[in-house]
Amino acid sequence: MSNTDLSISRNVDLADLATMHVSAKAGTLIEIHSIEDLQRAFELIKQQDAEFLILGGGSNILFVDDFDGVILNIKLKGISIIEETEDHVLLKIAAGENWHELVMYCVSQGWGGIENLALIPGKVGAAPIQNIGAYGAELSDVLVELDAWMIETQTNNTFSNAECKFGYRESVFKSHLKGKVVITSLTIRLAKNHIPNFEYGALKAVLESRGITKPSIKQVCEAVIEVRQSKLPDPNELGNNGSFFKNPVIDVFLFNELKQKYPNIPGYPVTEHQVKVPAGWLIDQAGWKGYREGDAGVHKKQALVLVNYGNATGQEMYDLSERIKQDIRKKFGIELVREVNIV
Question: For the domain 3-74, what is the CATH code?
């Protein structure tokens, strides 16, 4: 195999390829524009017995050190209608498409189901890994199936929604298939006469302030963007990974104990025995919102977002997250789990 078959770069700075914008070097970076590129890339990886990493939009990864192996930058493109009726449309989207641009395209066509997921950073292929969600909606609500390249067998495989084993910020691709597949495309079902979900508090408030009681999907999407922009920094202007921690799900007994000490603690029932607590509230309550040491900090408007003010290292960002984890464990008896992958 000739390296000229692939777009290969050596000793690449990853600062502009991940949204936290910390400086780290990749030994080798290969751009993937086709399934054939994937095949060639894994032949090369096998020949060199190299460690590898799949990079989507870089929004869910923190590099704490250089990566000496091979990074595959997924650039597969294409959106196609594979089925259309009076009521719905089935879309197949390549993994390298930008997620927010996909949302805006679908809203412009009047196709509903992902408007609540506007402005989530990253590429389409990364969306199923943690089952992205926001404002009462999740990718799993609309995903029909996805195609993935199986690394060990070097074959394509299709996973149904059920086979993805979706949970809250979870999927099979984050657990026992982690590092074993490359997601190449998603198929989603969107509705033409969609009834939007706008019951989430902040969304409802924005819509009510505009006198809108029966919003269109476009109006819901605009409200989502307004809410997100009001409290979440643009990663192009201020390095961040969006939500750094998952919202913890705790035992109802612990929640009731905390409620006695903190009457205003918010909680959302998950099951009869479990309650989800906003991680941002816990971090804010513990006094971390707006904290800054050097260029590593916690966003002043949203405590769930850790930010790089310019020249923070990946290790400094990680150390800050570890101190927050330890403090929340000490104050509330709750173990925070990072949403972000540490490399």
Answer: 3.30.43.10
Handedness of CA 31, 118, 188, 139 (dihedral sign): positive
Please check whether the domain covering 79-191 is classified as CATH 3.40.50.300. no
Out of 31, 226, 257, 339, pick the active-site residue: 339
Q: Where are the domains of the chain?
A: 3-74, 79-191, 239-342
Which residues of the chain are under the pLDDT cut of 50? 1-2
Out of 59, 171, 185, 243, pick the active-site residue: 243
Active-site residue, from 40, 169, 228, 338? 169
- The pTM assigned to this predicted structure is 0.83
Q: Is 80 a residue of the active site? A: no
Q: Which two tokens stand for residue 232?
A: 């979440």
The reply to whether 3-74 and 79-191 are identical in fold is no
Looking at the domain that runs over 239-342, which CATH code has it been given? 3.90.78.10
Is residue 222 among the annotated active site residues?
Answer: no
Active site residue 169: yes
Model confidence over 60-115: pLDDT tens digits? 899 999 999 999 999 999 999 999 999 999 999 999 999 999 999 999 999 999 99
